[in-house]
Amino acid sequence: MLQLLHETNPICTPAWSLAGRTFTDAMFWLPPRTRVEIHGVEHLPRGPAIFCPNHTHKFDFLPLRAALLHRDMQLMTWIKARDYKHPAMRWILGKGGNVPLASRGYLIASDFAAVHRRKPTDDEYRALRTHVDDGAPLERIDPVIERSLRTARPIAGVSVDFAQGYRGAIREAYRVLMAESLRLARRGRDLGRHQHVYPQGATSKQLTPGHIGAVQAALALDIPLIPVGMSGCREVFVGRDHPLTRGGRVVLRFGAAMEVPKSCVSAAFEPFNPDDEDAHKDALQAQTDALMARVNALCEPAYRWADDLRSDGKQGVARFYT
């Protein structure tokens, strides 16, 4: 993962930008035509910002990019590390102007698989995640597995100090990798590129609660958040994992920019540092909840809050595998 971040060029070349625009034009303008209906154009920012839509389909970034490319607005999408595993996708994503993203959950799952040559079970993953997040004891983990996880090794290419234990090692790898992701994002921001972050994380037709990453990105990059409601993708795309459309209507609604006040965290706050995330969790979540409320209001009724607030997409450890 660290090598991937070092090798990534987050700036889409003019040729690839033209190719992307041609592809999306063909997708949304040729028969069977899929119309992209756009509202709130007056809210589109002049300077760099972070676009924060709901996430309903694997390829729902296509109508968003199509709408913005026609206004000469370039997006850098923060892409889950799992999507870079296939060589062809890694090559395509590397050309398209994107930022690889390694979450703590991904690090836990991928490191476990590297050590044990198998995926963790859902119970193993939950126990490890609770340990990493909250410091809970590893009571549900086989002692043999626990000992192996404490063996010194790089995690996702990051040399970490295992004297701090497995929990500290995962958290340190996360901090280092996210600092690299932010380096790429800052490079794009400085060249006028916009960021694209899915605050809810996993896909779901109806909206689910947001994670604190988008708010931290806004603080780190010192740019506003643009809430986006995107409706209709489940109906127009062919299946949940296919980029082709069958015709229909996608509705995009852009909301007014949301500034995250720097006063909500301390002056020493370091975005994506797990210790600082813990210390400011309530404030960061409050800002995230405000963002998600705006996104919800911009969605069509069928795409608003899920009654149980749960995603209808992949659950548990399956989220970290394609």
Write up what this structure looks like.
The longest helix has 26 residues, at 165-190. This protein has a single domain (2-106, 175-316), classed as Glycerol-3-phosphate (1)-acyltransferase, CATH 3.40.1130. The protein has helices spanning 2-7, 14-29, 61-69, 87-95, 104-116, 122-134, 143-149, 165-190, 213-221, 233-236, 274-279, 281-298; strands at 34-39, 50-53, 75-80, 98-101, 194-196, 225-231, 248-254. It has a seven-stranded mixed β-sheet, sandwiched between helices. The two termini are 16 Å apart. It has 322 residues and is α/β, with parallel strands linked by helices.
How is the topology of this model organized?
Layout (H helix, E strand, L loop, with lengths): L1 H6 L6 H16 L4 E6 L10 E4 L7 H9 L5 E6 L6 H9 L2 E4 L2 H13 L5 H13 L8 H7 L15 H26 L3 E3 L16 H9 L3 E7 L1 H4 L11 E7 L19 H6 L1 H18 L24
Parallel strand pairs: 1-7, 2-5, 2-6, 3-4, 3-5
Antiparallel strand pairs: 6-7
Summarize the model shown:
42% of the residues lie in helices and 11% in strands. It has 322 residues and is of the alpha/beta class. It has a single domain (2-106, 175-316), classed as Glycerol-3-phosphate (1)-acyltransferase.
Q: What helical percentage do the residues reach?
A: 40-55%
Molecular shape:
globular
N-to-C terminal Cα separation, in Å?
16 Å
Instruction: Give the tally of β-strands.
Output: 7
Quaternary organisation of the protein chains: single chain
Side by side, the strands of the main sheet go 1-7-6-2-5-3-4
The largest pleated sheet is described as: 7 strands, mixed
The CATH class, by name, is Alpha Beta
Cα-atom radius of gyration: 20 Å
